Amino acid sequence: MNTRLFETQSALRARYKQAPELALVTAQARTRSDNPADPFHLQVVPALRDEAAVPVGVHGSVGGPYDAPCPGDLLCAALAACYDASVRMVAQAMGIELTALEVHVQAKVDMRGAMGMGRDLPVGFQSFSTDIHLQAREGTPAEAIEQLRVAAQRCCVVAHTLRSAPEMQTRFHA
Prior knowledge:
Elements: H1 3-18, E1 29-32, E2 41-46, E3 54-57, H2 71-94, E4 98-109, H3 111-114, E5 125-136, H4 142-155, H5 157-163
Antiparallel strand pairs: 1-2, 2-3, 4-5
Helix pairs in contact: 2-4
């Protein structure tokens, strides 16, 4: 077990128990573009850290050149990253030594909805599929791997968000 992770999370649990409002975190991102007239290219800045800016493009299925990850790719990446981190942290907490871990996410969407081709067509992803391939140190009991699976699924914030969409507000400022 990773002692540092255990100590850090123990301290956080105690703090959150005393002051639950401290557990409410605000994630943020913004976009930027050198050419606002270009509908196909921008950058997204996660956590408002300019050094972490990610180029974003528009998928070919809606007319873009698809020369950079599109927003749907980034959504899949967020789900993959969240599952990966959840598995790693839970494995550490359980004392399971991972020797390999890869998370693969696919999402299906009918782009006709996004292109306004019919009010009856859905806009948004209709399904997600996540495959988690992991290897633990030889001799790790199958029951421990099953406990890891259950706990990691319970901890994945992005997966839970996608399963039950939260309230969303969008404001346009001109």
